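ok so dumb question maybe but i'm new to this and my supervisor (M.) told me to 'just get the structure for DNA-binding transcriptional regulator, GntR family' and walked off. so i did the thing. is this what she meant?? sequence i used:
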Amino acid sequence: MDSKVKGAPDEDADRVPLSERAYVALRDMIVTLRITPGSPIHEDRLSKTIGVGRTPMREAIKRLESEDLVAIYPRRGTFAADINITDHGLIAEVRRQLEAQGARSAADRATRRQREMLGALGERIGQQRDDETMMRLDTEIHRAIYHATGNRYLESSLNHYYNLALRIWYLFLPRLGGMATHLADHEALLQAIIGGDGDKAASAAAEHVAHFESAVFAALRS
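this is what came out, is it supposed to look like this??
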């Protein structure tokens, strides 16, 4: 995974609040399993690694706790949340609805600049040669679509459930296969959003989540 913090343009890095920088960096470590499920969160060590103080780190941890990515136990400490595979179907059920609405909203509200950015992301599909880089592009695409909804409440909910699903995806990544096909699913979705076709975008988004769900269940059975 890239060492720089994702989620903010380079030119805006100095203006990103320290708590946000800590949140994004720690979130990415958790969802990509660089911090494995159930592992302790060492605040002091992570503060030094990310380059923030204790207060921003604690604010980030509390935020991640509210998003089910961190578990805090009195007198025991802070840990990366465990992954409960039985929750996968429940998460997918929510995502099918949210992703469809998110895609529809993005098709309706995305700015010209956001549509251009989505087009540029779409042009990168097929250029990756390994699952790790494909996963990073998948994440960039999803978060760009969420931001293009123009609805911060919807964007927050979409990111919440995507992050939970993303941890499961990384857990099964060595057994999944077909990552290139999964990533190619985004082409129709992006084209629909860029073209302003809300119905088509919603349908493509729901199908994309269903494919993800099927792939994980197939890996569970293998």
